[in-house]
Amino acid sequence: MRAFDRIQNLLTEKAELLARIRTIPFDGSIEVKTVKAEKYIYVRKREAGKYKSTYIDKYSDELYTLAVAQALQVREYKKRLRKIEKQLAELGYTEGELSPRVLLNIDFARANIKSLIYDQAVLEGIATTFPQTETILENGEVNGVKASDVQKILNLKRAWELIVDPNVIAAPCDYYLLSHIARLVNDGFSRDGGAIRSVPVSIGGSAYVPQIPVEYEVKQRISEIVNSTAKPINKA
Questions:
Q1: Is residue 146 part of a domain?
Q2: Strand, helix or coil at 61?
């Protein structure tokens, strides 16, 4: 594999790991404190050189087990991130600075990410209100919503975290990156999520039946668009 391809794969993996970490609330050491015979769960984390304990909820065996498991998972993710940083350095990669305009667009996307995900969820037929979507994005669960719909919304969150990651934005856009984003969206629902469609589909209310795409032609068309001299908005 060429150094360029290895760097791109590492940057994509790095962005996905960072996106996963952002979706886990238990990033730190799990503590149990007893106050007046009641137990409470806290997450202890070092920030700006100082340790800070953040209250999570009242103690329960289920919540404590979940918190410990996710804290260990975050630790493994961070361990892998350190290895990725080392590999990138060995390949001679250094992060380039994004333009102020691009950074502004990233901030705009992050500020509106809940609305973007809610709108996409509605298009996918997910029956949630905006407040429910907000709760899912912040806490990972909500009462009155099917587990499969919660998972779809969390998948969209992971995909968006990847899309707005500065490392991913700085990397070239190609078929493989787009496939990876699609795979995140379909995680847990399609074994072939991210792959080119190979079965016929229909469109509700229309007699039109889209052709089955040819992978080579799709890759070629994406390459033509990305490498064209068109304005970015027209490429999109």
A1: yes
A2: helix
Q: Which residues lie closer than 8 Å to 89 by C-beta, 6 or more apart?
A: none
- Which pLDDT value is given to residue 138? 84
Q: Is 132 exposed, middle or buried (0-12, 13-18, 19+ CB in 10 A)?
A: buried
pLDDT at 115 over 80: yes
Q: What is the 3-state secondary structure (H, E, C) of 61-98?
A: HHHHHHHHHHHHHHHHHHHHHHHHHHHHHHCCCCCCCC
**Residue ranges making up the domain that contains 121:** 96-170
Specify if 229 maps to a domain: no
Task: Record the pTM.
Answer: 0.65
Tokens found for residue 173: 């856009």
Number of Cβ within a 10 Å radius of residue 19: 20
How far is residue 126's CA from residue 25's CA, in Å, rounded to a whole number? 24
Q: How far apart are CA 154 and CA 152, in angstroms?
A: 5
Nearest CA among 172, 173, 220, 165 for reference residue 196 = 220
Chain centroid to CA 88: how far? 21
Domain count, the chain: 2
In the structure encoding, which two tokens stand for residue 101, read together?
A: 């305009």
pLDDT single digits (tens) 59-82: 999 999 999 999 999 999 999 999
Triad 146, 206, 225: Cα angle to 5°: 85
Report whether 193 contacts 47 (CB < 8 A): no
The tokens for 123 are 């298009």
Average pLDDT in the chain:
86
What value does the mean pLDDT take over residues 73-98?
Answer: 86
Q: Where are the alpha helices (DSSP H) in 91-129?
A: 100-111, 113-123
Distance CA 10, CA 85 (A): 9
